[in-house]
Request: fold
Amino acid sequence: MSGQLIASSFVETDALRSKLLAWARKQERSLPWRGTRDPYRIWVSEVMLQQTTVSAVRGRYDRFLRRFPDLRSLARAREDSVLAAWSGLGYYARARNLRLAAREILREQGGRIPRDAASLRRLPGFGEYTAAAVAALAFGSRLPAADANVTRVLSRLYGIEGMGGTKKHREAVRMRAAAVLSSGDPGRLTAALMDLGQLVCFARRPACGLCPLAEECVALRGGSPENIPGRSTKPRPVRLFLAAACARRNGSVLLARRRGTYLDGLWEFPSVDSRSRSAARRMLASKAERLGLRLEYRPIATTRHTVVNRRLFVEIFPATPTRRSKAGNSRSSRWFTARQLANAAIPTLTRKVARAAGFLHPSRSPRSRRA
Reply:
């Protein structure tokens, strides 16, 4: 008999819901996106929380909403402004899709966010989970919204074995989630399951002694909660060398607009990466020459950066514009003061390079100084 069938013989869903909600009331996390049924605010929070930690989002959420307090303001904003407000959260396609969806809702729906998950799914950036989460948290839909945290909790609770993320596993999780959400407030229950995964049912070393559902947990009874659900092997880290040029002029630094990658449209120091340090340096020298920059060959600073499985070892080289340089006089390159960087669409790596080069204070961003 499978773990799923064993679980169904002793997990009483009504009792489970009561325990889960009682635990949620006690732990009462103070999160800026909690306690609202505003679909716009819930939508923004769910998009921000995709592949990003709660701690990282907590500091950005209110700031983003101050700049774009409602769907109409987001829809009418320039892409650069939205990317700048998103700066530091990464995965910038999320911000682009957020704006595109807002524009479509304003144009096609009169500014009203659809209430059902099926309609939400047709909007840019709305996958299966995000559509279900917004429908549940904002409109009380009982369609299961199973993110990584909910999936982990339910997989262990009901002993759902197999590899997480597979179609068979997702369907089994949705079936169990639907049972839990069949009665009671689906928004509160969904939020409680998310919190349980974030605060107690960790992927590694779960705090089972603190879990309100420990007595019902099939994985805990089996003695191996960490092994459920199954996880695919992470790709091996790729070591790369990145060479960046730091050109200064009258208190400003030169940045170039990134094209053709997931960072498309964002501003960065002129740079290249390679598996070889010497190759990165040669390629940067060639790029600097095309920009009309004279590159010095002794680095002034180094830093490191990680993007998914890419480990970047960064060297920063000083550069000066030549008399014939046209750098900064086009849409693809521009001179930025430290204050202007606060309002620019720049990724975390650009900020790291600026700090390592001494252009920004290492412990404070321009945004924090201005506030």
